[in-house]
Sequence to fold (348 residues):
Amino acid sequence: MTSPGETRSGARPGSAARVLGLVGLVALAVVVLLISIGVGSRDIGLAQSWSLLWGGDGGDATGTEAAIVRDLRLPRGLLALAVGAALGLSGAVMQGLSRNPLADPGLLGVNAGAATAVVVAIGAFGVGTVTGYVWFALVGAALAMMAVHVLGATGRSSGTPDRLVLAGAAVTAVLIALVNAALVLSPRTFDSFRFWNLGSLSGRGVDVLLAVAPFIAVGAVAAFAMSRALDTLVLGDRAGTALGLDVGRTRVHAGVAATVLAGAATAAVGPIAFLGLAVPHAVRFLVGPAHRWVLPYSAVLGAIVLLVADVVGRVLAPPGEIQVGVTTAVLGVPVFVALCRRRRLVSV
Fold:
């Protein structure tokens, strides 16, 4: 008999192979981080970047290149890893929670709530820094997710995945309409908001990383602790209840964890398309549907994908750059289409 977290079709790698694969992905993430530190509008080079990173002068008499490496590129790379991990993990949790293979942080109103709060911060309070946006976006994402759960819990069949998805679509539509209206009425707000809305790592320093890191850490711990519960939840409410799972409590806990992860990531860099949607699909193809593997793999692979997208954006348009939200969407669409063509990836 197959357990809730294992697939019934096709051979999957054993536990030892999965552990080795995860270690390999972590090593790859470190390599990509080191490459990203040496790439930018100013060509510093990997060897010199490595020397500057560890306190050497690397031939930099003025200290300018040292400041670029230590104060700009390293925090940016670490933030990309943290945000990518949060989005990949959030997408995996949301897909397990809603039993919907197309779920991502935008489905349940998280992105729309964060965007609405950022518009309020700019238009009503005159906030003009990324660090200021972070706190408003976190609150907005949380309030939007609460509204989705309240709407999804009313009436018959309360709290079912279908009702949550419909509630998320309704809340998103209303909030996006309000955002668009506010932007039309205030050109100044639009000018400030559009840079955040593209999704960008540019200009994010260590202050932004420190602001969102605790939320991402707490959300990640909560998500990993729910791996077995998510395996049971995807079997359906009746089966979950029969197996002793408190379905309502599990759904609330999973929703909170996903909201904290996606809200913190979106607050830091703006909306990032397709990463939370496509990465869990790729992971399930590699390791199967068991969440004890899907969650850590999604976190590490999401971190790698976002950092690679950031590096690609800097390489393609020197001395400027293509915003990481644009690069992720361009890279993610064909990959996701290819993954969706495989029948085994249609279900969670």
